[in-house]
DNA sequence: ACCTGAACACCGTTCAAGT
DNA sequence: ACCTGAACACCGTTCAAGT
């Protein structure tokens, strides 16, 4: 942005020593941004220290000046992605709907970034954006009259549910081999599983065989809303010793 | 078992060419058994094709005659572990309790085998023992009058919840560095997190700072029973249009 | 202070060659 | 049929050396 004047043509015979270095100086932000780009295009497994370094035109050792290691990089990626979660303005009258909307929003952001939910699953949130999400969840529940102990447990339980569902969701879509139509591939996988269940011995697995359609309906959204509904109703049931019902 | 006579002493000067091969012939069962032993002692990350092969006194290439690759090996490990889950004799009158007991039993078995739940999370159950567990869950709910569609969704949701909780649980215990007392290590980690939360800016995170104790209570069992209770009550609410209440 | 090359101790999987 | 050595194309992290 300082020495480069892209509006001027390169004078003849003036070749850069190395083919277009143009490298920005390494920063933590730049590393995390690059890592998220690799995540989005190729999935979490492709985000290796070496791959990120390569993308930045350097070697893996260079990253260690800005990031303590792979684990920290993954944590930083998660919090960067969490910044995309749109938080609601709490409206105490609508706390249950808002809690469900927020959960749906988190799931939307997670699934928009491949299998990033694997990083969230089973890690204590420490990044500022992740903490802001938890803060709003607590605020919604406290304003709705949920007792502190229950609200604390519920943040954990909701988080586990959202992460697990996002991971489950990406199993199908993310494992598509490159070059294949994701939906076509999914269809194939799906038929295979249905056929497998249908071929099971009916005497040992009468319920599974008899409920193949109910078990393999691929609607991830329906499963998510089902679980979310149950959880939020359950949380709400702790609001008062007995209200009007 | 055929050419070896262990009751006879080795004649003098008769040394085995290689130091005590004594190797059983490689079978899928032996490989899976060995892999689970490595899992139990060192965790899932330590279960590599090379490590399992080494444990069997051979090279990694030898395993590929009995197992298609690492993914299949992990699936086989999961189903072998699932064989330890004790299944109840369905008693329709107690279906809700039995469903909760079964979920608790699954969690017990998962956490007894380190982070095996990571394999379960987001994989469709196909092994015979895993299918037997799903079959009983469906049987319990169907006998309790849960509609098929709800029972199908509930098996998924319950499974996600159990896996997520088991993974969360092993975060603390399984990451203990070798040679350190797990509880001491956990204590330290825990104090660190509490201190971090307490030091957060109270104006941006009033609920988190104000609820540190509720948020960091380490009781995994309480969280599990809380979520389980909510889920099973939610499932039960679909039993009839309106019963006696 | 920041960056790097080279090295260390690992990975999963394939394949031609052996028995 | 089963097993193997060697190789291929990767890993995360460290460390002495450079600028």
TrEMBL record, chains A, B:
Domain HTH tetR-type as annotated: residue spans: 25-85
Region of interest called Disordered, as start-end residue ranges on this chain: 1-25
PROSITE patterns: HTH_TETR_2
Coiled coil: none
Keyword Metal-binding appears in the UniProt entry: no
InterPro entries reported in the protein's UniProt record: Homeodomain-like_sf (IPR009057), HTH-type_TetR-like_transc_reg (IPR050109), HTH_TetR (IPR001647), Repressor_TetR_C (IPR004111), Tet_transcr_reg_TetR (IPR003012), Tet_transcr_reg_TetR-rel_C_sf (IPR036271)
This protein's UniProt keywords: DNA-binding, Repressor, Transcription, Transcription regulation
Chain residues forming the annotated DNA-binding region: 48-67
SUPFAM superfamilies found in the cross-reference section: Homeodomain-like, Tetracyclin repressor-like, C-terminal domain
Pfam families in the record: TetR_C_1, TetR_N
Full protein name: TetR/AcrR family transcriptional regulator
């Amino acid at each position: 942005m300082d020495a480069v004047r892209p509006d001027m043509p390169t004078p003849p015979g003036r070749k850069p020593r190395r083919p277009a270095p143009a490298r920005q100086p390494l920063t933590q932000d730049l590393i995390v941004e690059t890592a998220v780009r690799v995540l989005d295009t190729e999935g979490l497994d492709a985000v290796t220290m070496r791959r990120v370094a390569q993308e930045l035109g350097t070697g893996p050792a260079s990253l260690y000046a800005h990031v303590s290691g792979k684990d920290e990089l993954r944590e930083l990626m998660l919090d960067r992605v969490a910044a995309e979660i749109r938080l609601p303005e709490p409206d105490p009258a609508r706390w249950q709907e808002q809690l469900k909307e927020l959960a749906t929003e988190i799931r939307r952001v997670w699934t928009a970034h491949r299998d990033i939910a694997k990083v969230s699953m089973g890690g204590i949130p420490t990044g500022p954006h992740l903490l802001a999400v938890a803060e709003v969840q607590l605020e919604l529940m406290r304003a709705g009259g949920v007792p502190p102990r229950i609200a604390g447990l519920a943040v954990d339980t909701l988080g586990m549910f959202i992460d697990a569902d996002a991971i489950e969701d990406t199993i199908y879509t993310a494992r598509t081999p490159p070059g294949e139509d994701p939906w076509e591939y999914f269809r194939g996988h799906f038929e295979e599983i249905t056929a497998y269940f249908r071929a099971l011995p009916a005497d040992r697995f009468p319920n599974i065989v008899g409920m193949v359609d109910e078990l393999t309906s691929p609607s991830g959204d329906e499963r998510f809303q089902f679980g979310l509904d149950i959880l939020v109703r359950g949380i709400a049931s702790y609001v008062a010793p007995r209200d009007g019902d």
